[in-house]
Amino acid sequence: MRADEPVKVGILISGRGSNMQSLVAAAEQPGAAYQVAIIASDKPDAAGLRWAAEQGIATFALSPKGIGKAAYEAAVDTALREAGVEIIALAGYMRLLSGDFVGRWRGRIVNIHPSLLPLYKGLDTHARAIAAGDAEAGCSVHIVTEELDDGDVLGQARVPILPGDDADALAARVLVEEHRLYPKILTEFVRR
Question: What value does the mean pLDDT of the chain take?
Fold first, then answer.
């Protein structure tokens, strides 16, 4: 990546965008390694899109319903490229990307996942960690590959599982660490 100007990042979301907001806040700091060029979502009514628009950040929204995965991903790809995006950050984006899409952006898509990968890929990570009797849980930032939550782990944060924890309580504590970890790791990643 270039050292002379911030790397353009596109963030994909599906919901409220709390991790997106932490990435945007880091991008607004003096000397930031990246800038957020566009926020895109598969949910046109996502709360995170409204927040991004209020901040003056370019947005793109399209539901894949009725047009199919290939057409949807082609439209997202076009929007990202037109915005000059060099790196994609998934932040609560709840769709699986096709092998074709991942291939076009190989090594340039990162994701935050709410478990200590390789443990608990997919959904219900907090409940699964509690049910397994784990002493700790956490989050991981990883490179996106064609396999679900399987790319190289770039960084992790650990959170103890406390007596009496349920999935919601644990998720809330892990989310705090996600907001700290993701901007740090994305900054390191774009500076490589």
Answer: 96
